[in-house]
């Protein structure tokens, strides 16, 4: 995480999977891990998030392909789609202000987090991370559904 934060502070590109796992199922995107939100909050330059969702990689490297195991190499001739969404920009000063005012309304067990560099206490940080994560998750879920529908439409089209 420290190396990722350094890259963001230098204005570099950082690519990660906030789900915390690679999913082989076509199911709604679950709650995201808070690491992405933490990096966004802690970076001295507020990063722009570019949501990207892909479909079909579970057919390239299926977990249970050959005797319940992954294939020894990626499979060819599989249909893939990569859907890129609109950039997400965060107004962190405003979001932090809201987190401070709303954090009294949440009930969470203490994790022993120190105050953030911006002065947010633990509950405010949790509220902020939940808000950032949910905004990213919502964008990714919309892309997942959009990409799935596009893939269905294009797979019905047969070459002449």
From TrEMBL:
It comes from the Eukaryota. The keyword RNA-binding does not apply. It is found in: Membrane. GO terms for biological process: phospholipid metabolic process. Its main location: membrane. InterPro entries: Tafazzin (IPR000872). GO terms for cellular component: membrane. Keywords: Acyltransferase, Lipid metabolism, Membrane, Transferase. This is Tafazzin family protein.
């Amino acid at each position: 995480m420290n190396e990722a934060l350094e890259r963001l502070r230098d204005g570099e590109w950082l690519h990660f999977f906030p789900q915390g796992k690679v999913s082989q199922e076509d199911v709604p995107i679950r709650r995201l891990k808070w690491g992405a939100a933490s990096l966004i909050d802690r970076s001295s330059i507020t990063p722009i998030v570019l949501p990207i969702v892909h479909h079909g990689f579970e057919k390239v490297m299926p977990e249970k392909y050959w005797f319940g195991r992954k294939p020894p190499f990626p499979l060819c001739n599989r249909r893939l789609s990569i859907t890129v969404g609109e950039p997400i920009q965060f107004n962190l000063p405003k979001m932090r202000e809201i987190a401070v005012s709303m954090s009294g309304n949440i009930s969470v067990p203490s994790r022993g987090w120190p105050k953030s560099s911006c002065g947010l206490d633990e509950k405010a940080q949790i509220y902020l991370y939940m808000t950032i994560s949910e905004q990213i998750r919502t964008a990714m879920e919309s892309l997942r559904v959009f990409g799935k529908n596009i893939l269905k439409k294009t797979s019905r089209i047969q070459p002449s």
